[in-house]
Amino acid sequence: MTQTATATAKKTVHLIIERQDGPNSKPYTQEFLVDYVPGMNVIACLMAIQRNPVDKDGNPVAPVVWEMNCLEEVCGACMMVINGKPRQACSAIVDQLEQPIRLKPARTFPVVRDLIVDRSRMFDALKRVKAWIPIDGTYDLGPGPRMPEVDRQWAYELSRCFTCGACVEACPNVNERTSFIGPFAISQARLFNEHPTGKMHRQERLEALMGEGGIHECGNAQNCVQVCPKGIPLTTSIAAMNRQVNAYAIGSWLKK
Amino acid sequence: MAQMKPHTEYLLRRLHTLSGVIPVGLFLLEHLFTNATATKGAASFNNAVDAIQSIPLLPYIEFFFIFLPLVYHGVVGLYVAFTSGYNAGKYSWWRNVMFVLQRITGIITFVFIIYHTWTTRFSGKAPTFDMVHQLVSNPAYLWFMIIGVVAATFHFANGMWSFCVHWGITVGARAQRVTAYVSMLLFVVLAGIGIDAILAFTHSA
């Protein structure tokens, strides 16, 4: 009750935003004050700045740009670094944040402008590990095998990944000296390797995880599981895939 | 290493984690065990050393089962430490701190082992209680030894935890949590045994 009371008493929300005009321009920070609305999230603050693009001192500035889509934490588009942690801006409720609220782009990705980053590398990684189930053919292949309910339950948790990139941002081993594909891609390989139809292509995924930037780049810092907004057991996925990849590597070497 | 053949880096990294346990980790345990005989007196330690000296084909065993794997683990380890990012200042979760400590203790151990073998194994002196006693009589060397043993045992104990994840032995969150406690217990016990042995060498024969 007291918390709500103090939050309502606050007239404005103070934001410090790290901005950047283009992919190659220098970053700079600007401070903003927006009117407080009960229950507002960071997106609402950014919308307020867009409606009235003036900084804290009232000087007109270019409106801050960001990405968003679903506004209910299922699309992953609005991931940014909020008060030092990568998370979704839509589920970052102002009442639960310490002020001033500091917003930064997730710099593990190339910054396009302000809070917009280019997450192409994540989609390239998903292509590398073939994170899909190939069912297309020149004739009707018929229904696939059924999935055991016990496996479906945990696999569903992995399917909630929306490629937001929080795990990639927090991972110390995703940096300019490595080509690590990132925790999410390993977890997705596990998801599709578990699917009864996806299993038919498990070797291709395991080969990809042994390739450049593969599973061996993981150093078990386990930041990924801390920041995942969907609570996906990424470190369990990584360990499970370590088991699959190592068994496959040893097995296939012995068969040659 | 980006231009390497597809699976080379995977292989090098997996051999790195494997060599850290077998044989380097096993040798560390053997070494701590032999050193611990010093707590029973100089004669006990000298007997243990003589027993090792009587192993047939000792130079080959030393070279292929200790020297080569140790150099491999150390050199690849430096590469791993160099390519790792460090963000524990920003994300101070326990495992991330351990991730950083694993790399720091690895580098300390690397430097320690070079100087340690230089002053013992490659010094040309006979490996006796008295030789070690002379070395640890220097307070700087004594502290260097203590730091080295703490770093090496931490690196081994925490590395065992990491090995279990890298090889898909501990998969679930609970298994990883429990083995983390076990590894820290292992660290305390091994560091204690190591320091106890070093202090035993400070008493004259």
Features:
heterodimer; A: 256 residues; alpha+beta; Ubiquitin-like (UB roll); Fumarate Reductase Iron-sulfur Protein, Chain B, domain 2; 2 domains; 5-stranded mixed beta sheet; two-stranded antiparallel ribbon; 36% helix; B: 205 residues; mainly alpha; 3 helical TM bundles of succinate and fumarate reductases; 8 helices; 77% helix; 0% strand; globular
Compact summary:
The complex is a heterodimer of chains A (256) and B (205). Chain A is α+β, with helices and mostly antiparallel strands and 256 residues long.
**Share of β-strand residues of chain A:** 5-15%
- Whole-angstrom Rg of chain B: 18 Å
Shape of chain A: elongated
What are the secondary-structure elements of chain B, in order, as H or E?
HHHHHHHH
Total of domains of chain B: 1
3D architecture notes:
The complex is a heterodimer of chains A (256) and B (205). Helices cover 36% and strands 13% of the residues of chain A. Chain A is an alpha+beta fold. Chain A has two domains: 2-117, Beta-grasp domain (Ubiquitin-like (UB roll), Roll), CATH 3.10.20; 120-255, Orthogonal Bundle (Fumarate Reductase Iron-sulfur Protein, Chain B, domain 2), CATH 1.10.1060. In chain A, strand 1 and strand 2 (28-35) form a beta hairpin. In chain A, helix 6 packs across helix 9 and helix 7 packs across helix 9. Chain A is elongated, with a radius of gyration of 21 Å. The mean pLDDT of chain A is 94. By secondary structure, chain B is mostly helical. Chain B has eight helices and no strands. Chain B is globular, with a radius of gyration of 18 Å. The model of chain B has no long low-confidence stretch (mean pLDDT 95). The chains are: A alpha+beta (256), B mainly alpha (205). Chains A and B meet through helix 8 and helix 9 of A and helix 1, helix 4, helix 5 and helix 7 of B.
